Amino acid sequence: MTDEKLDQILKKALAPEISDTEIQVCTRRKNHMNKLRNIKKISAAAIAASVIGIGGLGYFHPVLAAKIPLIGKIFEKVEDRITYSGDFTDKETVLTKENSAGNLDSQNYSASDSGIKLTASEVYCDGYSIFLTVNIEAEDADFTHIPEHYTGMSTTENKTAAGFYIGGTWSVDGNTPERFKNTFEGQVIDKHTFAGMLKMDLTQKAADSGELRLNVNGLGYDDDRMTDNEDISASHWTDGNWKIVLPFEVKKTEVKTVEVGEKKGNITLDNVVVSPYQVLVHTTTPKMQRELTQERREKLLSKDPDMTDAQMFELLGSSYEPCYTICFNQDGERLYPDMEVAGRAGFAVQGKEIKTLYVFIFDSFDDCIQMEEEGMNSSAADKAVLVKEIQVA
Predict the structure, then answer these.
(1) 144-163 confidence digits (pLDDT tens)
(2) What is the chain's alpha carbon radius of gyration, rounded to the nearest angstrom?
(3) pLDDT at residue 371 above 60?
(4) 377: how many CB neighbours lie within 10 A of its CB?
(5) 102-107 long-range contacts, Cβ below 8 Å, gap at least 24?
């Protein structure tokens, strides 16, 4: 039985008693960050026109945009706006280039369907994640109303990016396909062109080169003219079939792993990985068996009256005890947190210098949030299960 199928069964049988955080692998601050994004979406939409109008490549002049090569230089265009920002110069592998006439040097990494052309531009892999830039073109679309969201640690940074939804799966070297969990982050170039980056986290560390397969079945985007609606998510969605196979190479330089192996309570800090664009904290926590309460038993029996207790325990399964991680650098700057799953917490470097890392790991979500809000000197630091200072450089 797949994890996805199990999720569906449990949600139907046990909801609303069991939340997503119980059913699925613990995702770090999911609701907290979604709430922030919802608040920011409306304000970001209001400044989107001015931001794109100033920084957009030929935004008000589509003809001008067509004369300036974009594909093959998307990292350069969006690297200061996206969440996983940084200087990608000379680190990426260029898959497709574009000349001043807008012609591509290769069609191997493009796919067209349903009026939308998807072109893979550049790729970078640090062994743990794949960062892929793409160009999306649609003649019948108007991308100028895609709202922007904040990608910095605070709104004062005025750092924003547009988002583009993607549906389907991706896989590496024939491994089990993974569903897309992130969206493209990037910039609207003109009414018909969007350039962005997609980050895909590998379940197993890649040692060398590999082959990435994209099996895209849907693309969509929000519309800032629909902010009065309860949900503007993918108000413009197109189903289709875009398949691209592309090579990637692991860039091992400038990626450092610091082994720790320290255990406090039920949490073990295994190691910390620092790459040019992200910090990964790897932990180990014990598994816990979900309790088979009478209410859960009755709900499961309502779906299958012949289900035994043994089958119920198997269906409920076990999950890793959650932990919540925060990182600061030597200057007390908190690193931008991404989704945290069992055994792995990710953070965006965003150009910050990292000589020393201060890692705080909590078993309480509330304590973690308190420290996020109050900073490195928060009184919540005393409640952390594990605190570690790690010399990186």
Answers:
(1) 999 999 999 888 888 999 99
(2) 22
(3) yes
(4) 10
(5) 102/66, 102/67, 104/71
